[in-house]
Amino acid sequence: MFQSGNIWGNIISSTILKPELIENSTFVSNISFCGSNDCPGSESVEIKKAQKSTVYILCGIYVSCALFAAFLVLTLIDSYDKIGLVHSKEENKNPIKLLVNTLRHLRNKNQLLIIPLTMWSGFEQAFISADFTRSFISCVKGVDFVGYIMICYGVSDTLGSYGFGYVIKFVGRIPCFLIAAGLNYATILLMTFWKPNEESSYILYIIAILWGLSDAVWQTQINAFYGVIFQSSEEAAFSNYRLWESLGFVIAYAYSNYLCVQIKLYLLLFYLTVGILGYGAIEFRLKSQKSVQITPF
User: Fold this and answer.
1) Half-sphere exposure of 245 (CA within 13 A, CB side)
2) What's the CA gap between 79 and 81, in Å, rounded?
3) How many CB atoms lie within 10 A of CB 14?
4) How far is the C-alpha of 226 from the C-alpha of 111, rounded, in Å?
5) How far apart are CA 42 and CA 31, in angstroms?
6) Among 16-20, 52-56, 74-78, 163-167, where is mean pLDDT lowest?
């Protein structure tokens, strides 16, 4: 359900950002500078922009949705005391102690090995939401197409989240992670070597769908994997999960306006490779531990 937010949010944006509400119909002077060729400060690319009033309307709708969601949580979700649940000792700790436990958890080798893949989750989400929508969709098709193409991403992400939950029961965890990595490698290489043009703009939809499928694995299975390998310290583990994923977001957004898209794509390849290697090392450690436990003395 969480991933379906991509669908509803982009339905709203595609409805508000109608082509007739865009100020300039000639939105790009040289389409060859879109995609991986897009660099900060390039004067060859001029993306058409929505009117300020349209942007204010869109932001107002999103803020209203957020406030309405908060209202529903406050009024409809029962408190722990009402349903008879008791807070754990970890939850009763003050924020300083929770922070200390989070940092102490970094002593765990598995936690150190899973950090690159966790940060990758932040990197890939930041890229698809910022760089892909700006340098690929807006540059090639215009800002009014962002919602339509990202709806495909949202549908793919939502269905993939449900689908991989069932697939993992039959093929296991490792194949699902490898499938997601393979989809990301394929789409990154496609974006790197694709020469943007109007005739092949359908590739944008393909990229969005494939990236959505891979994101479905990262968002669901990394969470589940944390629960498997850190069963005795879930609070500190999931705090680390949010910490390192958020750091991936921060780093990606920090250099977004300073690096060419091609460099960002190369960085994504590096991040993904390091993340998968770390994940593989954890799986090897888990199998080694199991083999030691069942070895007769």
Assistant:
1) 15
2) 5
3) 17
4) 9
5) 12
6) 16-20
Rg of the Cα trace of the chain?
22
Overall average pLDDT of the 44-50 stretch: 59
Residue count (the chain): 297
| % of the chain with per-residue pLDDT over 70 | 81
Closest by alpha carbon to 31, among 46, 16, 19, 17?
A: 46
Cβ(17)–Cβ(143) below 8 Å: yes
In the chain, the amino acid numbered 205 is Y
CA separation for the pair 204, 17 (Å, rounded):
19
- The amino acid at residue 81 is D
Q: Catalogue the long-range contacts made by 196-199 (C-beta closer than 8 Å, 24 or more residues apart).
A: 196/31, 196/32, 196/34, 196/35, 196/37, 196/136, 196/139, 196/140, 197/31, 197/140, 198/31, 198/140
pTM for the whole thing?
0.82
Burial pattern 110-121, b for ≥16 Cβ within 10 A else e, equals bbebbbbbbbbb
- Kindly report the backbone phi and psi dihedral angles of residue 34, in degrees, each rounded to the nearest multiple of 5, phi listed first: -90, 180
- Give the integer Cα–Cα distance in Å for 274 and 244: 14
Residue 254 has pLDDT above 80, yes or no: yes
